[in-house]
Amino acid sequence: MPGSDKETDLTERIEAFLSDLKRGGSGTGPLRGSAETARETTALLRRITAQARWSSAGDLMEIIRKEGRRMTAAQPSETTVGNMIRRVLKIIREEYARSRGSSEETDQQESLHKLLTSGGLSEENFRQHFAALKANVIEAINELLTELEGTTDNIAMQALEHIHSNEVIMTIGRSRTVEAFLKDAARKRKFHVIVAECAPFCQGHEMATSLSKAGIETTVITDAAIFAVMSRVNKVIIGTQTVLANGGLRAVNGTHTLALAAKHHSTPLIVCAPMFKLSPQFPNEEDTFHKFVSPHEVLPFTEGEILSKVNVHCPVFDYVPPELITLFISNIGGHAPSYIYRLMSELYHPEDHEL
Amino acid sequence: YFNRSYLLFGCAYQQSEGRELTKEEKQRLRKEKKQQKKNKEKKDDNASQESEKEKKSVSSSSSAPQPPTQPATQKAPSAVPAPAPAVVPASETPAPVEKPAKSKAELKAERRARQEAERASKQGKKGETGQQAATGKPKAPPSELQPVVKRLPEHIQVDNPDVLKKLAKKLERQQIPLRLDYGYKVSLFSHLHQYSRKAPLTQQLSIPSSVIHPAIVRLGLQYSQGIVAGSNARSVALLHAFKQVIRDYTTPPNEELSRDLVNKLKPYISFLNQCRPLSASMGNAIKYIKKEISNIPSQCKEEEAKGKLLNCIECYINEKIILAAKAIAKYAIEKISDGDVILVYGCSSLVNHILCEAFEKNRKFRVIVVDSRPRLEGREALRRLVQRGISCTYVLISAVSYILPEVSKVFLGAHALLANGYVMSRVGTSQIALVAKAFNVPVLVCCETYKFCERVQTDSFVSNELDDPDDLIVTRKGKTQLEDWQQVPLLGLLNLVYDVTPPDFVDLVITDLGMIPCTSVPVVLRVKNVDL
C-alpha cells in the first residue's frame, strides 16, 4: 500500500537522522556544523508534516513533539534540533490561529488581563480540522528553510560595520560563522587575527590556515597565552554553540577565560550567532549543561601507570555569563544580551519550552 | 674648566663602554661640541650646572643607542635581564651645555686624563653594585637613591641591526658561534629572538672545543633542548658547572686569579646566553659568583682560593635554594588546611616540594594539576605527586573555569618577581590568576628571594622568550593542519614562554623571609642590596 510505504520510508529517514546525531556528537568535534543540523532537522520536520497521518493541528503537534523528544534525547548537546522543533511548533500554532481567523499579534505571554478576560480561549486544544492547514504549514516551513540558508551570509554582510582597518581581532577555536564574517571584512579592510588554538581539539589550527589562505594575517597562539596577548587586542569575536535564554553562552571550552580576559582589558566581546542557536534553556541545569568526552584527549593512554590513580576531565563546553558579552550579531541584526529574552519570546511559544 | 672636566667624564664613560668609539659616536661628539659652542652665551653657567651634571653623567652612559653588550664596568653581565632604559638620552635634547672651544692640545690632555680616569674608575668599580660604583665618579649626584645605570640587554633588541652587529663582533672575538633566528616572527615580537630546537648551537662548535669548557657545552645543550628546565634546576646546574670549571682552572703566569677567572667566565656566559636566554635566577647567581671571585685577595694561593670559591658556591646553593625551600614549605603548610582542594599550574619544583611536605605532615587535601600545550609540564608534576600518594585531578588550561568552583586555593610558582610587584612566570599563570580572582579563590605565589629582580615590566611583550614555533604543530586524527605553516605567507605561530601577572591578582607571596604582599618586593630588594 502506498500509505504504509510512505510511513516506513519516513520512519527510516527518522532513524537514519537519529543515528547520525548520535554518532556526530561522539566527542571528536562536530562532524557537521550546526547550520547543517538545523537544515536537516527542518527538512525532516517538513517531511513528517507532509507524509505522516494527521487530521488536526493537535495531532501534528503531538507527532512532532514525540519525534522531537527522541531527537533531543539522541544528542542532548545539539540544541539546534530542539530549537527547530520549537520553531515549527510555533509555526503550526500560528497557521492554526490564522486559519481560525483569530489574530495572534497579541502577546503570547501569560498576563493577568488575558487570564481574566479570555477565560476559555486559552483552552486551545487544536482539534479543529482545516483543509488548507497542511499546505500553509509546509509553505511556512519552506520560508524557515530559506531563512536558514541565508543566515551565514546575513551575518557576514554586517562585518564591515564592526571591523575597521588595522585592527587586531582575537578569536578562539573554529566557527564557520566567524570565519565567513572575517573573510567578508577582509575583502575591503586589512587587519590581523589572533586565533587561540583551543586544546585539546585544536580546531584553531584549521581556522588559522583557512583565514591565512584568504589573505588575512593570522597568528596562532596557545590557550595559555590568551591573557598575555589580550592587551594588544582591539576586539574579540567568537562563535558559540548555543545562546541561552538569559543571554549567556554555551561555547567551546576556554571561552570563559577569553571573556574574562577581555573584560579585564575592557575589550568588546562580540558573539556571532544566528537565530537558530537561540535556545530557551537556562544554565542552571547542572547535569545537562556540561558534556564530556574521552579523557584520552587530555592524558593519552601512553602515560601508563598514573592513569589509574588520576581523575581526568575533558569538558567540551563553557558557560559564559551575559555580563561579559558586549554584542550579539545575528542574521536579523545586532542585539545587546539583555534583549535576548524578548527575541526568544518571538521565536518560541512558552508552552513549547518543555518539549 | 669645570665644564671641560665633566665632558671628560662623559667621554670617559662612553669610551669605557666600547673598545673604541664608533664612527657614529665620534660624529655625534663633534656635533655636540659645535652645539655647545653655539649655546655658550645663552645660558647661565651656575644655574644649569647641577642639572647638567646629572643629565650628562646619566645621559652619557645611556645615550649610546647601541649599548655594548659586555660592558667592562660595574654593570652586571648584560646577560642579566637587567634593564629598562632609565633615562631618555638627553644627548638629543639640546643640553645647554657651555663648553669652550677645544684646541688640539686640549684634546690631547683630555684624552690622557680620560685614560687615567678610566683606569682609576675600573679599579674602583670592579665587582661592586651600581650604587658604589657611581660614587667612584665624583660628578654623579651623591644621593642614596642612585639611578642604577641601566643598559638594554641585547636579547630584547633583535630588531636593531647595530646591536646585532656588535653582538656578532663580540661573539667572534670570544670564538662562540652566533645562533640564527628561525622562522617567521610575529610582528609584535620582532624584537626578540626565536630559535629552533633542531638547530642547537653545538652543531657549529668544533668538538672538542678549545674555548669553552666541556661542562659548559653540555650544559648549554641541555638548556637548548629543554632537558634542564625550570629556574631552580637551571640555576643549580649552572652553579655545578661553574664548580667544575673552577676545579679545572689554573691561573696562567703573570695573571691574577681574581681578574682572569672572571674574564674566563665571560665567553661561557655568552655561550649559555646563546643557547637559551639566561633567567633572572641565573643572572643573580652569576652576579654573586663574580663578586666572590673578584673579592679574592691577591695574595691568596691558588688552591686556597679555589677551595674558598667552591665553598661559596655550595653555601649559595644550600642557603638560597635548599634551605629557602624548607622555610617556604614551613610557612606554606600553615596555609594548607584539611579538606583543601589545591590547584597548581605546570611543574614548579618549589610548589611540588611544598605539597609533598604537607602530605608528609598528614594534611588531607587533594590537588588539581592544570597543564597547557605545548610544553605539557604538568604531567611531570602529576607523576611526582601521584608517586607520593596524593590524589590528583588533571585538566588542561581551557577547562580551568569548569574546575575552579571546586577549588579552595591556588598555589603558583614564579620565575622571577619584578620590582613593581608583577610576577613573571610560565605563560598561562596570569590567566589562572585572573580566573581564580573572578571566582574569589585565593592565589598564593611561592618564590625564593634569590629570584627577586630589579627590573620592572608591565606587559608580556617587551621582554619575553620565544620558543620554537614548531612545537605548536600537532597531528590529530591523521591530519596535521599546520604542517606547512612556513609556506603560507600570512601565517605565524607564537610560542611564548613567560608572562607577567599583575599584583592585584595575587593575594600573598610566600618567600623565605616570610609571607609578604606582592607590593613589598622592592623593599626586600633594598634590604638585600644593603646587605651585599
UniProtKB/TrEMBL annotation, chain A:
The gene is eif2b2. It comes from the Eukaryota. InterPro entries: eIF2B_beta_subunit, IF-2B-related, IF_2B-like_C, NagB/RpiA_transferase-like. Acts as a component of the translation initiation factor 2B (eIF2B) complex, which catalyzes the exchange of GDP for GTP on eukaryotic initiation factor 2 (eIF2) gamma subunit. Its guanine nucleotide exchange factor activity is repressed when bound to eIF2 complex phosphorylated on the alpha subunit, thereby limiting the amount of methionyl-initiator methionine tRNA available to the ribosome and consequently global translation is repressed. It holds the Pfam family IF-2B. Belongs to the eIF-2B alpha/beta/delta subunits family. It is found in: Cytoplasm, Cytosol. The keyword ATP-binding does not apply. Component of the translation initiation factor 2B (eIF2B) complex which is a heterodecamer of two sets of five different subunits: alpha, beta, gamma, delta and epsilon. Subunits alpha, beta and delta comprise a regulatory subcomplex and subunits epsilon and gamma comprise a catalytic subcomplex. Within the complex, the hexameric regulatory complex resides at the center, with the two heterodimeric catalytic subcomplexes bound on opposite sides. One of its GO terms (cellular component) is cytosol. The keyword Cytoplasm applies. GO terms for molecular function: guanyl-nucleotide exchange factor activity; translation initiation factor activity. Transmembrane segments: none annotated. Keywords: Cytoplasm, Initiation factor, Protein biosynthesis. One of its GO terms (biological process) is animal organ development. This is Translation initiation factor eIF2B subunit beta.
TrEMBL record, chain B:
Residues 87-98 have a biased composition (Low complexity). Residues 14-144 are annotated as: Disordered. Signal peptide: none annotated. Pfam families: IF-2B (PF01008). GO terms for cellular component: cytosol; eukaryotic translation initiation factor 2B complex. This is Translation initiation factor eIF2B subunit delta. Acts as a component of the translation initiation factor 2B (eIF2B) complex, which catalyzes the exchange of GDP for GTP on eukaryotic initiation factor 2 (eIF2) gamma subunit. Its guanine nucleotide exchange factor activity is repressed when bound to eIF2 complex phosphorylated on the alpha subunit, thereby limiting the amount of methionyl-initiator methionine tRNA available to the ribosome and consequently global translation is repressed. Residues 28-40 have a biased composition (Basic residues). It comes from Sphaeramia orbicularis. GO terms for molecular function: guanyl-nucleotide exchange factor activity; translation initiation factor activity. InterPro entries: IF-2B-related, IF_2B-like_C, NagB/RpiA_transferase-like. It comes from the Eukaryota. GO terms for biological process: animal organ development; central nervous system development. Belongs to the eIF-2B alpha/beta/delta subunits family. Residues 17-27, 41-57, 99-128 have a biased composition (Basic and acidic residues). Keywords: Cytoplasm, Initiation factor, Protein biosynthesis. The gene is eif2b4. It is found in: Cytoplasm, Cytosol. Component of the translation initiation factor 2B (eIF2B) complex which is a heterodecamer of two sets of five different subunits: alpha, beta, gamma, delta and epsilon. Subunits alpha, beta and delta comprise a regulatory subcomplex and subunits epsilon and gamma comprise a catalytic subcomplex. Within the complex, the hexameric regulatory complex resides at the center, with the two heterodimeric catalytic subcomplexes bound on opposite sides.
